[in-house]
Amino acid sequence: MGYLLTIFFTCFFFIATAQSGFQIRIKTTNIHADSLFVKSYNVKDKKFTKFLSSKFTNDITINDKTPLMAGIYVIEADSVLLSEFLISDAQNQKFTISILDEDITVEGSKENSANRAYMQKMLEFDNQLRALDMEYQQLQQSGMPTYMLQTAMDSLLKKLDKIEADKRVYQEKTIEKNSGLLLASIIQSSLELLQPPKEYYRDRNKYFSFLSEHLFDNFPWEDERLLNTPLLYNKLKIFSQQILQLDPKFAIPVILNTLNESKAKSRNMYYALFDYLEHDFGYYKSPFREETLYIAMLKDILNTPDLDEMHELRMKYYERELTLLSKNQTGEKAFNFNMLLSTGDTVAMYDIDADFLMLYFQNPDCPTCGELREKMKNMEILNIAIASGKLKIVTVYFEENEKLWRNYLQKRAVPNWIHGWNYDMQIEEEELYDFRTIPMIMFLDKNKRVIKKDLLINEIEDWVKRFL
How far apart are CA 257 and CA 142, in angstroms? Predict the structure, then answer.
């Protein structure tokens, strides 16, 4: 009995060893290069990065005892892309890729053979569509009578519908044949999406709401292998661009619904979505920052139980972000504070009477603050509004270096602006405003209600035109 067990465990060891790790043979012809690189997709850097390199030969085998992680990989000769391959799991990682002239074949991997066939078929469909487009261009230039042109156009549309239908049938059959593999999820995520109704094209919010609501219709959130491919990143990039076209009241429900959809299928996908959007809408240096959207996201994650360790550690950060961003919201009265003016008078901000007030929070020595001051100083629309008496611009220094402020008054202060120093440090000590980045411009109405918080340089003229 002991002898039989020894044989069994010995056989099991050899089988397990044979199945572990990877071994990929790469055969090429007529390629001259110094190095061969294998790159995996790095979701953090959002690009393919080298994880293995070797001196180039026309027949080379790469291997290791540790299996490759599931995802998309690319093979390069120096900087020239030769091929890609897919890894779905820790098994079936022994195969040969032959790159012979322009023909690429795979032996030993059904998934990668299917992927090559799929890519070839998609190229055929693209060529058919390209040929159809050429027919369309020729018809437009043909000069034939309208009734004949319409008949020809109808025929082209039928051909187009046929190609699109054949393509969809082929994709769905390929998904079914490769069920459970990464290839199936890649195809699933790239299926054609619903198009907005024609009447939506006249309404920006309806149009982009429809696009963003349906962007992930076919996306398999549950397949975390897609984290190691460019597909998720590309979707998130498109999603962010579409969201930025929407007014916040339309954008917030779409964001929250998408976050909840991903959360229900995969926490890791939810984190990837949240982190990406946080960088775009929440990072204080992002040119796309939109705090109304970020506030909604923060409330969502703060109400999400059982976060992973990394996001749990960031809870205090999220809470502080929410506290800061919730201050001085649009429509609310801005926090009042005291100032010493360049005239020597001490006033409260609320005492400055103006139809519109532009608060310019700055540090006089900040290079960006100086650059923005110069640009604003030369904006004709601001100077006209100031001359009319409808607008007052107030620079506010809120730190303790009085000497720095007085030096600024002597050498760099814009003459037709008001210049103040928060001498009692109330702004900074009580964190009345969010100063993670300066300069920060706030646009207020006569009653000191916030019209626009954190006005960007390229927005100033538009907002002044809108209200003045």
Answer: 49
